[in-house]
Amino acid sequence: MIGTESKQQEIIKAYQFRHACKAFDTNKKISDEDFHFILETGRLSPSSFGFEPWKFVVIQNEALREKLKPVSGGAKGQLPTASHFVVILARREEGLRPDSVHVNKMWKDIHHMPEEVVQDWYDFYKSFVETELEDNDRLIFEWSIRQTYIALGNMMTAAAQIGIDSCPIEGFDKKQVTAILQNEGIINGDDFGVACMVAFGYRQKDPKRPQTRQHLDEIVEWR
Ligand SMILES: Cc1cc2nc3c(=O)[nH]c(=O)nc-3n(C[C@H](O)[C@H](O)[C@H](O)COP(=O)(O)O)c2cc1C
Q1: Cβ of residue 153 lying under 6 Å from some atom of ligand 1
Q2: From ligand 1's centre to the CA of 167, what distance in Å?
Q3: I need a surface site. Which of 41, 46, 147, 187 has the fewest CB within 10 A?
């Protein structure tokens, strides 16, 4: 069995290995098994109320990547070179209303909650949406987007642990990317909106600079 210390070192090494990779080696493809593993860590990520408000669209079609490039400045090096390129969609407000089809499906079909438990959660969730999210479409969607970033982080860390590079991407024009995905029939109706992107692959070269971070003392306060 691996000792605690070496397990910790192994995980920290993966965090140190991960960097925002700008360009990938186009000769190296991530295996189906490894990519499935990365997606699985996204699927198993936690979400508020267990609603899993995400969809991972894996864009392998070169022509579609080309279409996204002019409106995705932050992904110009990654779009043409990534082994796998993912646009993470977040469920929009309509599907997160307390009486929506999705919320009901999650409670009943996925989490198998008994009817009386669903009723309790319904009341609690309704009050959460009304008070914390001000029953506001934009706030509900932003809350949904926030949760996709947990899956994003988990997928990148999991990738790093098996020696796969990645880059999180927010540098794109949301309206234009949404329009492209609607045109392609990837986003239909108002179910989902674009949250963020993430590219995976194997680095072309090592990063120019070593990882730079603030000291732990600057970001942690003990009381
Ligand atoms: C939410 C988010 C969005 C980001 N968007 C981009 C992007 O559009 N393009 C890019 O090359 N890097 C992007 N980055 C990478 C950051 O610039 C990078 O993580 C940061 O500078 C720290 O560097 P490191 O990840 O290499 O340690 C993004 C990072 C995060 C977390």
Answers
A1: no
A2: 7
A3: 46
End-to-end distance of the chain based on CA atoms, in angstroms?
A: 36
Domains and CATH numbers, the chain: 20-92+144-218 (3.40.109.10)
Residue holding tokens 């309509």? Answer: 94
Closest CA to 88 of 117, 129, 123, 59: 59
Rounded to the nearest angstrom, the distance between the alpha carbon of 169 and the centre of ligand 1 is: 6
**pLDDT 10s digits, 125-170:** 999 999 999 999 999 999 999 999 999 999 999 999 999 999 999 9
Pick from 138, 134, 156: nearest CA to 146: 138
| Model confidence pLDDT, tens digit, residues 115-124 | 999 999 999 9
Dist. CA 76–CA 68, nearest whole Å: 9
